[in-house]
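Hello,

Following up on my earlier ticket. Below are the two sequence lines again, exactly as submitted.
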Amino acid sequence: MTLAALTFASPTWLFALALVPLALLAYVASRRNARRYAVRFTAVPAVRLAAGVVPAWRRHLPAALALAALAALVVALAKPQRSVAVPIERASIMLVTDHSRSMLATDVAPDRLAAAQRAARTFIDQLPKPVRLGAVAFSDTPDAVQSPSSDHDQARAIVDGQVADGATATGDALQVAIDALRRDVQKGKRPPQAIVLLSDGKTTVGPDPVPIARMAGQLKVRIYTVALGTRDATVPNPNPFGSPLSVAPDPDTLRRIAQASGGRAFTAEDNDELSTIYKTLGSQLGTRKVKKEATASFAIAGLVLLLGAAAASMRWAGRLP
Amino acid sequence: MSDGVLTPPAARQGPGRMPTALVDALDLVVARHAAGALPGDRRAAGIGSGTELAQLRPYVIGDDVRQIDPSATARAGEPHVRLQVPERTLTTWLVLDLSPSMAFGTAERLKADVAEGVALVLGRLAIRRAGRLAMVTFGAGRPRLLPPRGSRPGFVALRRVLSQGVAQDGTNERDALAHALVRVGKVASQSGFVAVISDFREQHGWERPLGALRARHSVLAIEVTDPRESELPAVGRLALVDPETGERVEVDTSRRRVRERFAELERERREGVARELRRLHVDHVTLSTDRDWLLDLGRRLR
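Thanks for your patience. The regenerated structure is below:
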């Protein structure tokens, strides 16, 4: 737990931390007083030899512990809170994956489709059980649709069953995914919903995806987009006499889609980036931050320090500080 | 370091009663101790230059004709003079500790009070029979030397020095005693009686100069102690400060181990001083602040 992760429910109490330097001043003043009232004695070197040298840190240890205890108790009064990530109990996520012909490009090893499939599989593995997962695979049209369900294997089957062929109909696919999410009503209301869109090229057929993304934003469905591939990638032309076709990704459109719906846009140019993005998405979509009271640990630490101060003082000074 | 600033200690008690009868009895004792350092047994000056024959030698021009020895001149056929061993008065040197640690005492009086009493008694005895009194003080910054003076002037100077008190706290000279002894050895050309009055505490290197003094003078070492310096009472935690070094220490006197260790260290220290004085064949008297020091002085010297 880092200190930066701490927030305070009643931070006003933190002003009481000013007590710590005040107590330190009082301690220094009392030490000075004790010195002023020292008894004159001629055999001090022998006394020092007889009593043994007490290291400075041990003389001040009880006071230091007591001050630390004071600080810990004051912090405990301010009700410190820690934000922790807990798995989401209810959420629905649609995986929308492109398997157009451009996914044959080998700029991402071994080819774009295989890399996307592998990354999607790790994403699915990472999701907590209660999250409902659906999938849409599309090329010319959305050809395989699975509505959100708690059985992640069905989505996994769709991801695995893709074959790269055809054009890119991003708008249609998004529409299908939003419709599926809209139907996904649990206990009278829709859970938090998100779409993860993986595409590698321009939308070639079907409607413009950006207005559809705006509609998703109105429905509070966030779209996280991943643009896969490098700009210079090509695939062989189906026409044996034609030159290879350029299949550069279209990160601009995807970014606009993400912005319109309130999600985030990522670009991946190789396998590692893709895995990292999916991992981030998995932990972002699969968990949420919860503030957890940390008062007890500070109070206990204060108490232990206080007891330590008392014990040290009794042991070495024969009195409570 | 306060250089030579003296103040009478606040807890000064004075040396207490000094009965004349006791002082007179001590006269004989001290006289016997000082004997042997002088030829002629310190006959008073003024009745001639001496009675004991030192040598006979031929007359040379310039010799006092009254010293011509008739029989020697007759036997030898040429004038001879008779030279006597000169008889001198006794000079008493008091080497007095004025260090801040002397202003300490937990019984009837301070160590400085005992030292003052001893100095007064020895001073009074010193000026009897035309003796002379000299003094060296140390431990209070620059050492002070009062040259040998006879009779009243010597005693008045002693009283003036004693009334000024001891050094203020914070004066710390570890070889002040050694320097004072070296000084006495240089200045005291004739043999005399040297009394060192000190607590022999936190002083180093005094053994050699004292041994050198012992070769020419009759030396008496008077150690002044306080009962608290030899054992700590069990009174719980104490914050102590050393008057000379200003060193501070906190000690839990309720711990038996600490008290025993302290008593052992102090006993070793005192035994070390006594052993060193015995090795130098110097008479050693220990006076404590909780006893009748005059009686003890007489008893120990007997």
